[in-house]
């Protein structure tokens, strides 16, 4: 019933690639009150059941007060629908949120990314990035930079990758990024952004430092025995616990942050059972490449305002570390090795994985 409006019916379009809008004010001779018939065509089609009359194409829109009232009611019902949807997607970044209060950065268009001065600029804190960007630490690139979400679902990722929520500096916002699918099984340690498959979770598992299947917080049975359900960036997942359970021979129940615990073979001093001397702290390290092993040791802070290290120890990276000679047998305790990070750093004893 409605033809495409002529040039006199079209409003002046906004800047952009879509061109002039056919839905706008009419020619100046109509007092700016005539709307293009194309804009009303869907409304009149939908309003036939309400008794709204069809209008001849090309004629000014003149309806009685009765029809105007009904038309206003119809517009009031239809117009809020897209507005509500836009508000919902803007609030949630277009993806389900993990924890109830955490915001997720949206996935911007290339044009929107180019308009932001700090996009992909290096950063140290969240304030270094313009909204809605987050300061993301990418362990694969060994760099931190301002970015938006690079995916919303797995469909945005190449084969062998999944879309996951990642924490940013200050944990003020989450960004979605494609993470490599790995081989780590349920209950094993993992990395959210693994550099290799060996440190990533297998398909179908979520990583919260530990690989686990998705679960329901209000259904404890949604996790297998020896696991508990905890909220995470991508929703709740099952995390290991050995509290109140016996461990296999040669292993002990080791506690980690967040109420997580796991049976493992301990290398070094079990400083969870025997406290460290005053001023020292207990370090617990569980590398993803050695899922059944945990290294523990007491370490003392050093540097400005701290006492000097004891004989045989050197101050390196803010802690006193045992000095050693490479190639000399017995210079380090069992399951520790003499190593250094670079040629400019000292030789110290560390875990032998």
Structural notes for this entry:
- With 353 residues, this protein is α+β, with helices and mostly antiparallel strands.
- It has a domain at 36-78.
- The chain has 4 helices and 16 strands.
- The chain has helices spanning 37-47, 65-78, 80-92, 110-114; strands at residues 134-138, 143-147, 161-167, 174-180, 206-207, 211-212, 227-230, 237-240, 252-255, 261-268, 281-285, 293-299, 313-316, 319-322, 336-339, 348-351.
- The strands form 7 sheets. It has a 4-stranded mixed beta sheet, with no helix packed on it. A two-stranded antiparallel ribbon has the order 1-2.
- A hairpin with a 6-residue loop joins strand 7 (227-230) and strand 8.
- The protein starts with 36 loop residues before the first helix and ends with a strand.
- The relative contact order is 0.06.
- The model is unreliable at 1-65 and 77-100 (pLDDT under 50).
Biggest sheet, spatial arrangement of strands = 9-10-12-11
Radius of gyration: 31 Å
* Major beta-sheet overview: 4 strands, mixed
Total number of β-strand segments?
16
> Which segments are poorly predicted (pLDDT under 50) over 5 or more consecutive residues?
1-65, 77-100
Span of the ends, CA to CA: 76 Å
Can you count the helices? 4
Overall form: globular
In percent terms, what proportion of residues is strand? 15-25%
Along the chain, the helix and strand elements come as HHHHEEEEEEEEEEEEEEEE
What percent of the residues sit in helical stretches (DSSP H or I)?
10-25%
Output mean pLDDT.
Answer: 77
Structural class: alpha+beta
